[in-house]
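sanity check this fold:
=====
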Amino acid sequence: MDDDTILVTGATGGLGREVLARARRTGRPVRALTRRAALPDDPGVAWFTGDLTTGASLDAAFAGAGTVIHCASDTRHPKHDIPGFHHLLAAAERGGTRHIVNISIVGVDRIPYGYYRVKLEGERLLAASGTGWTNLRATQFPELLDKAFTVLSRLPVMLVPAGALCQPVDRGEVADRLVELALEAPAGRVPDLAGPVVQRLDRMAAGWLRAAGKRRPVLAVPLPGKLGAGLRAGALTSPARAVGRRTWEQYLAGKASR
């Protein structure tokens, strides 16, 4: 068993790719797990195909991997993440994994949203697993907001939740932190990682429209219930943990230049 080996799940996803690049620079043996049948040609990484949802073909990837950085998530079918977590934990136990580093989201315990409930349940399963664990909650990635605004901008008027607050954090900075944590001892839930500035979503939308070269009025619409209240109360933010460096405006500047 090579306890130094780091396995990255969801290695072909947006965050997984960033984590994988940084894990390679640690000098440790690195493995990558993906559901894709065609594996990347990457001599610096040992690639494995396996399906966390069904539990198929996982053991080869996990055997002897001392640390797992868990980035895999099915945002289109969130219900798959719970069996995926069970299969992850079982494969980690069989393989002798000592430390699982998990990425979660700021607000999973405060926002009544289906995907967030799934992420929170994953945190609970990890804490009760008996395997050493570290859990990092991060705020929203700019790429996610970019996709949401792209969809919302298809209408003549761009509708956003009134008073909603957000604190986007750079995906690469989150990847940096996950790899740092993977090199340390299991630490349980660690302090959140949030972007440098808390902003109103309607103002962010207006900035996005300018960067995208689109002209639309932005209409802030009151969102009822606990979801709207949570967004207005800043449940997606962590002001005390505004340690990220790259701003939303810098992200938009990069988008405009492309």
Notes: The longest helix spans residues 81-95. The chain has a mean pLDDT of 95.
